[in-house]
Amino acid sequence: MRTGTYAPDRCPDTERNPMSVDTQQAPAQLEEDEVRSLDAHWRAANYLSVGQIYLMANPLLTEPLRPEHVKPRLLGHWGTSPGLNLVHTHLNRVIKARDLNALCIWGPGHGGPAVLANSWLEGSYSQTYPDVTRDAAGMARLFKQFSFPGGVPSHVAPETPGSIHEGGELGYSLSHAYGAALDNPDLLVACVIGDGEAETGPLAASWHSDKFLDPVHDGAVLPVLHLNGYKIANPTVLSRLPESELDDLLKGYGHDPIHVTGDDPADVHRSMAHAMDTALDRIAAFQRAAREDGVTERPRWPVIVLRTPKGWTGPAEVDGRPVEGTWRAHQVPLAAVRDNPEHLRQLEQWLRSYRPGELFDADGRPRPQVLACVPEGTRRLGATPHANGGLLLRELPLPPLEKYAVEVDKPGATLHEPTRVLGDMLRDVMAATAGRRDFRLVGPDETASNRLQAVYAASGKAWQAGTLDVDEDLDRHGRVMEILSEHTCQGWLEGYLLTGRHGLFSCYEAFVHIVDSMVNQHIKWLRTTRRLPWRAPIASLNYLLTSHVWRQDHNGFSHQDPGFVDHILNKSPEAVRVYLPPDANTLLSVADHVLRSRDYVNVVVAGKQPCFDWLSMEEAKAHCARGAGIWEWAGTEDGSRAPDVVLASAGDVPTQEILAAAQLLRRYLPGLAVRVVNVVDIARLLPGEEHPHGMSDFEFDGLFTADKPVIFAYHGYPWLIHRLAYRRTGHRNLHVRGYKEIGTTTTPFDMVVSNDLDRYRLVMDVIDRVPGLAVRAAALRQRMEDARQRHHVWIREHGTDLPEVADWTWDG
Amino acid sequence: MRTGTYAPDRCPDTERNPMSVDTQQAPAQLEEDEVRSLDAHWRAANYLSVGQIYLMANPLLTEPLRPEHVKPRLLGHWGTSPGLNLVHTHLNRVIKARDLNALCIWGPGHGGPAVLANSWLEGSYSQTYPDVTRDAAGMARLFKQFSFPGGVPSHVAPETPGSIHEGGELGYSLSHAYGAALDNPDLLVACVIGDGEAETGPLAASWHSDKFLDPVHDGAVLPVLHLNGYKIANPTVLSRLPESELDDLLKGYGHDPIHVTGDDPADVHRSMAHAMDTALDRIAAFQRAAREDGVTERPRWPVIVLRTPKGWTGPAEVDGRPVEGTWRAHQVPLAAVRDNPEHLRQLEQWLRSYRPGELFDADGRPRPQVLACVPEGTRRLGATPHANGGLLLRELPLPPLEKYAVEVDKPGATLHEPTRVLGDMLRDVMAATAGRRDFRLVGPDETASNRLQAVYAASGKAWQAGTLDVDEDLDRHGRVMEILSEHTCQGWLEGYLLTGRHGLFSCYEAFVHIVDSMVNQHIKWLRTTRRLPWRAPIASLNYLLTSHVWRQDHNGFSHQDPGFVDHILNKSPEAVRVYLPPDANTLLSVADHVLRSRDYVNVVVAGKQPCFDWLSMEEAKAHCARGAGIWEWAGTEDGSRAPDVVLASAGDVPTQEILAAAQLLRRYLPGLAVRVVNVVDIARLLPGEEHPHGMSDFEFDGLFTADKPVIFAYHGYPWLIHRLAYRRTGHRNLHVRGYKEIGTTTTPFDMVVSNDLDRYRLVMDVIDRVPGLAVRAAALRQRMEDARQRHHVWIREHGTDLPEVADWTWDG
Q1: What's the pLDDT tens digit per position in A542-581?
Q2: Which of B228, B240, B253 to substitute to test the interface with A, most A CBs within 10 Å?
Q3: Buried (b) or exposed (e) across B512-538, using 16+ Cβ within 10 A?
Q4: Which pTM was predicted?
Q5: Nearest chain A residue to B716, by CA
Q6: Which SUPFAM superfamilies does UniProt cross-reference here (chains A, B) (predicted)?
Q7: Looking at residue B554, what is its pLDDT?
Q8: What ipTM does the predicted assembly reach?
Q9: Domains of chain A (ranges, CATH numbers)
């Protein structure tokens, strides 16, 4: 089953790297019987992979293969599977030989059949799913359920034992691997990277993670770059570089490449075993040097470059066209098995080429030779608790909030930068986990810009590259992670959380869209794991979005986008939460809540600029617990009747404008009964049937009334509020102001004026919507209009906000 | 103004690359007077950069600097500016010396002051903005307007002459540069990449673009990797690698590095000039070899590594802390100039250090020595038409659609794969532009998977890496671009469109979220350029989203996300359009429309799986022109009275289910007057005030009625339809079905059943919502419920859809 097309030496440059361990050079270290037993394991995994894609009956081929044994819909990815099986087989060998604590990230997770096959072989599958036994009946179930309605997904997925990584989207394997290795000094994280995935941006960036890996406190990452040459329909870039150029690239990433190349199984087993041993010896030496000898030089960690044919051992040709070793092996090489007798014959021949009789006994149990390389208990890759991180999770030691709370005797009398206040709390969380090392703060070069720099007093920034005397807060052993790649930050944090630790991602609000697609996958993961009883809950993925849309004084339009909240709220409601704390104490309360929570993606939007303190710590806790509530002190209701109008807000800047509007109304229309409502937990606006935090209509009407005008000042795109509240009784009376894509480099107040979110416009909205006010308050309306005009004139001349705005305070 | 901290030789590895051209090795090629005039230009640009950040009066320092000359709000980025000024000065030199046709992409576009300064110096700024004259009055305007309310943004922006790239988000400079170079054989695209940006994923991936650049038909890209050592608050990874490791990396990317290192201006001028000459000589030699000698070996294109201090020539220390050469120089080095006399003194000293009297005459005009290096006319970087691509744009030769139209005698009688039909049309567009070379198709390894492979008959896939005999459709001169990086695809296409050409991006629907943040920036760019009269309209950015949420039979949940439409519809309505053609002919009509359009981002969602043909080409054109309309042939209205219910749909799969529901209703409830409405252009649902395509209430009510139940089957998240239609009179009667995040690897019909979008559920919705039907049609409702149950049982057993569904046809 060789093809003429697979010939690595036909690459333009055949110069070999001196570190290369290939079939020509590899010493025959393995005993022949070990080669045979490794090969038996590999063949068994390959057999089981093909079986999952094709068979719904006759799993052991105890009778000749007939069309009705074959699934009616053939779905799955064969191409990458033999390579994954090879890596799994050889990881088994070294885990057992060295008693390693190991986890593997399967980047080409499309090859679900491979990882499922190995889990079934090692017994971790049956342990997790007792109905899929390690015998003929279980094998039949394993085969039928794969990619079958009601069965299991075709990729490595949350349902797959031993996995923390869905291999569907591609790009995140290596950053996940690094995240898993952080603060796990005894863990080896192998990471198979497909040459397709290697073309993605997130993967390309994450190679530089080695400049952030502490050889003392972190474990090791062993990347296995699998060059099988093709994607769905194209050759891959890396597989078509001259080997010297690829080596330059990997060395440039800080790695020392070890090559394994071939298509003869026995030769490849020998050279893969040698490569694994070489890599693990080097890793052990680096760790020893750093931990015992105090060496601080950054190691050139090994990377294995595995070059084997796509769809290796599958049909060489189908319908006269080469398949093995080409892109045609990507999914299902024989597509018409039920209708085309030649395809059926080829499938049977293919399955029998693995000699199943040698691999499984009559009851379908793997024979001892097949299992010789398989480790025991939690050493098995499908049974490691690191892949079910909730099992290892400890409560985060959170300090009492009162220690950081801002003193608030009366609302709006003082100003604080909310994120700076939070920074003090995070510093103490960092300090309290100094020994346990299970909390990390990540951010794309923005921790200080986001005013969280107090944390540096408890932990510096992880850094293993060169240093200069002028540097500050860099720390070989630091747990603050900063790289200018939102993708890498997200991947690190996901890997860290999925392996049972805690963390926070602080990010500019606009640029968190860079990870829109990554967070989709994480939410999908959580939605699925929440329904799997064997998956223990993990710490939530917490975003602190700051440097937000209303305060981009330095950067303007390119840095203005509040739409991440919209994106998140499209996703599975059981897994997503969004909070917009309006001041420092509410931010503390929300942060405390999200850091304690499990299995959510929490989005917290909060400002870093000085912001009025509205609530005391006690009030803040109560308000955040309700998620939305009336601020009686800010309104003019006397309790004797319904309010004339409700002024509502969500977000720090809108809250300030709403309160300024309330103050204007109190002053100029003292008879108007105004209710002020603040919303922290935005999902509260949804009906209870749509989101676990949603309100009943009774609650909603109690807060917003069923029939009075509601002027809602919202932090983001105004139609989001309508999308959440469209079913409410009083929805027709809801009028929302928010960001409508009008932005540039300008002052804070000019931003709100430009988007019609300013206090003057809000007062005008009240006048326009409360019955009878249009006439009664015509003069006030004109006064408001004049104030907006005054703003426009002033700002063009002075470049600053009107003094009456800049110096405004709450006088309630 | 040297700091002790800037010392490249303190990097761990001081081994020099043999290609390195640094201050120690550079031959003194330049005449002394040329060094002096280059330095004068550079100092002038630096002076003007500082002036923009700080001054609102006294631009020539004709009097001692006083606090009132300084802006009240100091906003901008100094750190990168001197480096950009250096590159611009030296590009000027080589453009003039070699009469180059050049464009520059300024990756560190935060340094807006630098590019504005250079544009003003060369006169392109005054040419574009005549009120900002090249004299003292204009200089005063240039200074005051910068980052000032009502003025110009602080970054390189659409408003900046000579730019196609906003340097705010970071990550896209190099892919933009490649996109600009494609099919522009005589163009040199210089691209400054900051060492911060270089850490991002999109940038890291885009280095491999050199494997797709055709030295025959494409121009050259000259990356200038600017290592100034720091981001906002951290050292950069690449600046802290040993030089040999950085060289390995760049060689691994396929480049040949040329180093320029230093902090002595005269030395750096000499070595930069030498590096530029070396690089351009090599580029010319590679192009000659490919074009004249037929050499096909991939060139190792040069890259210049420029290592100069951050904030070079700025204050060495401020308040006792080092600033020049550190991250503290990132934004505004002296922050308290109006209040702190020492800061004011330092600012004046800093400004005067450039010796403005030598640079500008008494009227503020640049002296001849300053302008000696500046090229003329459209050779100036601020005046090249390639940066205002609409000027170069030609109409795309689009064939008559009838040639590809599917024959439709009666609706629903035949099936076609819509994207495959479109592929034939795209093939002919590709063929018709074979000589002009101004159309490209990009996609992440998915052109064939998306069934557009007919295009290969007209153009193969661009590929300059190694090839094997088994490869198909690879082409050194191809205009189909496939790399497994959505970021790179998007960046290439943006660069291509912005320089005045045409294209289409085909992408899996779920994974287009990978470029959410990139498309944000492109939309922001378009929104701004649409308001700039000097910017000529460019071809729209067209997405074809296929392999969509309802047909992920192979891949399941990870590949299911229809939310890009929601993301796009949050953005500036003047620039965004979304189409959901329900069949092949409507897809042809929509494709024709979007390929003719200008200055939009068009999102087209269409299936690749066999789909019923509903409309003839003529009907399709009329339907698409309306954007939404009644399909009379599908309903049971007799025109004598209002319908009892409206069945509406948008998207191919929902349309099939709606029609199947209409058929069930016709059969079982023949007396019910059913109207069937189809929506292609989703923004039609918005009010006219909210979107240019929005309908008036009169139109809307005419289509959907003001008071009848509307059952709307939508392709994506159902609440989007509510968000668009919440203001409509009959909104209370609108009931939307769509995708609600329930997905896995399963059959097409199981997907719609799981999400309550199936025909049986839609019929039940009608029964539940039409007054009086609940009783009258109770039996039918039960029959529908039974059908859903039958489905659940059947699929678990057979793994396929019910025969009655699989074999369904329209019998209208």
Answers
A1: 999 999 999 988 788 999 999 999 999 999 999 999 999 9
A2: B240
A3: bbbbbbbbbbbbbbbbbbbeeeebbbb
A4: 0.96
A5: A570
A6: Thiamin diphosphate-binding fold (THDP-binding)
A7: 78
A8: 0.96
A9: 26-386 (3.40.50.970), 401-611 (3.40.50.970), 630-806 (3.40.50.920)
